[in-house]
Known about the structure:
- The complex is a heterodimer of chains A (276) and B (838).
- Chain A has helices at residues 18-27, 76-80, 106-109, 132-135, 143-147, 164-169, and strands at residues 4-9, 47-56, 59-68, 86-88, 94-96, 117-119, 124-126, 153-157, 185-188, 193-201, 213-217, 222-226, 232-238, 243-248, 256-261, 266-273.
- Chain A has 276 residues and is mainly beta.
- In chain A, the strands form six sheets. Chain A has a four-stranded antiparallel β-sheet, with no helix packed on it.
- Chain B has 838 residues and is of the alpha/beta class.
- Chain B folds into four domains: 4-71 and 517-614, Rossmann fold, CATH 3.40.50.740; 78-164 and 399-512, Rossmann fold (3-Layer(aba) Sandwich), CATH 3.40.50.740; 187-385, Dimethylsulfoxide Reductase, domain 2 (3-Layer(aba) Sandwich), CATH 3.40.228.10; 693-835, Beta Barrel (Barwin-like endoglucanases), CATH 2.40.40.20.
- Classes of the chains: A mainly beta (276), B alpha/beta (838).
- Chains A and B meet through helix 1, strand 2, strand 3 and helix 5 of A and strand 3, helix 1, helix 7, helix 8 and strand 12 of B.
Amino acid sequence: MTTFGMVIDVSRCTGCYNCFLACRDEHAGNDHRPVTAPQPDSGHRWIDVQEHERGKFPRVRVDYVPLPCQQCQEAPCLSRAPQGALYRRADGIVVIDPEKAKGHPEIVLSCPYRAIYWNPVENVAQKCTFCAHLLDNGAKETRCVEACPTEALVFGDLDDPASKIAQLVKRAEELHPEFGVKPSVHYFGLPKRFVSGELAFADRMDEAAANVRVSLHNDAKVQEATTDAYGDFAFEGLEAGASYVLRVAVSGYRPHEVAVGTRNDVDLGTIVLERA
Amino acid sequence: MPTQSFTSCTNCGPITVDVKDGRVMRVRPLVIEDGDLKPWTIKAGGKSYSPPKKVTLAPYVHAERKRLYSEDRIRYPMKRVDFDPNGERNPQNRGKSGYVRISWDEALGIVSREIKRVQGTYGPSALAAMTSSHHNWGLVGYKMSAFSRFFNSIGYTQVFDNPDSWEGWHWGATHTYGFIWRLGMPEPYDMLEDALQHAEMIVFWSNDPDTTRAVYDGSDAAIWRQWLKDKGVAMAVVDPFYNYTAAAMEGKWLAPRPGTDAAVALAIAHVWISEGTYDKNYVADRTIGFDEFKDYVTGKTDGTPKTPAWAEAESGVPARRIAALAREWAKKRTVLSAGCRGGEGGACRAAYATEWARLMVLLQAMQGLGKPGVSIWGASMGAPWNSNIWFPGYGDLEGRIATSKAARKIPENKVPQKLYRLTLPDAILDPPVHWKGVGFCNKNFDQQFIPFSYPMEGCSEVKMFYRYGGSFMSTMNDTSKWVRMYQSPKLEFVVNQDCWWSTETAHADIILPACTSLERDDIGEFGEPGGQTKGGSSGCNYRVVVRLKKAIEPLWESKSDYQIFTELADKLGFKDDYTEGNSAIDWARKFFDLSDLPKYISWEEFDRKGYYVINVPEDYKSTPALRWFAEGRPCDTPDPNNFKRTTEKAHELGTESGKIEFASESLRRLAPDDEERPVSPRYIPSWEGHRSEAVKTYPLQLMSPHPRFTFHTHYDGHTAWLNEVPMHRVQKDGYAWWPARLHPEDATARDIRTGDIVRLFNGRASVLCIAQVTERVRPGVVHSYASAGKYDPLQPGNPNSPDRAGCVAMLTPGRQMSKNVAGMASNSCLIDVEKWVG
């Protein structure tokens, strides 16, 4: 059996948009029936690149999360569409039939990832097809993967234990596991909450407060970090929506304590420690 | 009809063009047969690094099909409706009036008669002609080839280009470490291997290779930087904008105010000097003038020690963070990825940017430039590279039909008069103008000091302007003056030849439609300009020479540039001398025959396949850039234009002393009293910066670096798919706006939110943009890329009108970098921003 899938490494994605533009080139104005009708010349993002800017000047991070159709094994779009309008091929690719699905805009709303688009000219819902029309003609990968310069997108057969993707997927995660739809697209490096900041000593502001231990507390555990050569610290991989207390205790200086919540990423700016 | 595939090459990557029923339906990275690509391997840290077996493109090249069929293609020859060559010419209406379609015969008739009339009446010098940068690829069609062969034949006033991507390096760094033949850029050879094997830190200083992609090299080097990141190499970024390389590398970010980078550099030197953490032996053996520099840094010369605290007051970067960077730098083997070739950052295009570029070289000199892991490297070029097989680039005389021995006769331009790109409008509007330097000074230091005046004695002022392409509204400085120039009655006749309606097109009297490189035949190597960027293709993972094939017939009534010049030459009576009987393919074959390729592949096979891959030999031996100099050996890099390389001075740099010069011998000889480019570099506060009087009126600093989603202006504007890339343009109310990024502090103070249309303004111009409020710029700075491909004034033809297409270059100062340095200073620009209410 073959199940086509994709692994996307967010930490390698530079936001170059090669994938989005290659997809547009492959599909806009080009008729690839029976897999798909032409993509409109504007508006659709069969592989979107979502930018996430986090933190505060000068501790900013920018991540790009490419988002194609997740080719879910339990795709909600399949169950909500009229008979035969959508189907999952033997190779795992979910196809919206460009003829049978005509006139059903509700298909667009069925996708929890918002990866389906409405084409008013063709009167049909459309989405990423993993370039099935090319795979059917012997291509080894999709246009977006071909265009990716950093191997942030890896395509292949999830069922082939020798494939690169089969190895990768073991360690990867789903974009929204809470949807419970068994996607065939998996991710590395999805942005997780962080708490960061800089420490400085009030009596020697011109020297970085390097190698100072900072701790982050909640009911469950205590995490520790050490400031780097610039006096910066960061706690990575935190849960969203949690409450913490950040503590700094350096002998000779007044202890510092601040409550932080991770509804968003938090940069605390410069914490200036006063002499005790 | 089955799909047919054609090979071609763009400015930013080789492509396969699929054609069905006479229409291009797909453009993808060049499809290369399995087995033709033999990836190199670099061993470092117990791992092996090899590139993927494919070529990659810059993002916009994936939209080549959209650009080809763009609504903005110039379809037919056009005449301005109120232009009558035999009556009223109405030059004041250029930019205002519309156009009417005419036949090629009429268009070329008018152009050729005007050439004869103007040159007959006023002399050959009354004709000026100029191109824009890099309009499309291929040795036959490239601007220095077909264009130059034509104009050299009839004689014309040439317009010198300024080195607009690396000004400070050209006018500054050359006086510190030579590399005149590279216009101040360091040699790149084997720097990827060096970085993988030895680098512990990379400092990206005003350098964004993820955006500029080494200019021509597709996206091939992006994966190298991932390897370095994966390896755990520490990354730091010095830039007022948290640029795309910073985002990808997750670097430590130091954000100096624009124009204060030199102060930060001096403070780093101060830390090293006061803590003794520099390479004293190297400084003693490989450099001269250190004491003079040291006295300035420590304050002995002027009473001001250039401490981190001093630099904090200038740059706004906390002293403790400057000192921390300095200490990390001294402790770790550090690559300085300063905005040179490959990164093309904005710090080198600012007031006194010569000083910053020189200091970049000197900082690395203090750490042993050329030793393992201690380099100046754009983090883009410098892959293993086969230098044994020669193929010309457009920058080589042999790579142009104007100058190559592929031609039987090489026409010589007999007009001695010159113009300079940066002052061309001033020259037309308000002559005389004077400047120093031949633009690209790649032969010797003295070239930078040759004085020029326009008009030249014995020559005519320019009466006819033949413009090829047209991007300067968004790439030069204070560009409203280009509109004023076009409307001057002194220009009796203006031609514009281009593929698309560009920023200047609608200021011409006659417009000639050229076709793109997909509609004509040519030849060229992926990423290799030759000349002053010899080895540029080492920014690609493979050397690939491509036969650019005509995939479709020229669209509408467009013609290839070579064809247009051939027909004009015919009307002027020198067609046979111009073509020597050659078609474009004949010329392509001549370049092939001149090169080393016939030793490896026949023309027939090359023409059939459409490409040849020059792989790296299995016994490849690396010769890292400047290692020879650090070790006191003769130069062993394949840098053919290094004029000392094969002499008894082969172990020397291209400076006058042969060493790195903390105090410059060439400046001591040529401009000893210039306080704006002193013998030893200084920090000089910008003439339009945070200490200027004008900051009270215009409190924000505009930085406008090279763009990410267009190659100069060549993709933006007429490639609608790019309007859906939200970092490039943002659509609002049916219009695709150019983003301007500002910090939340500055936005809040002006009640500006993301998505608001805002007016960027100063005494020079107003430009409408869409606001993006972001933590990625430091407070006080507005970031908006140069190079918008469109100019769209609210009142067409009015040079004072606000532009809404994003030509922020209209806001930038026309003043030259410093007294004796005729470089542009786009990033020394004060503005304010307000919400636009229409």
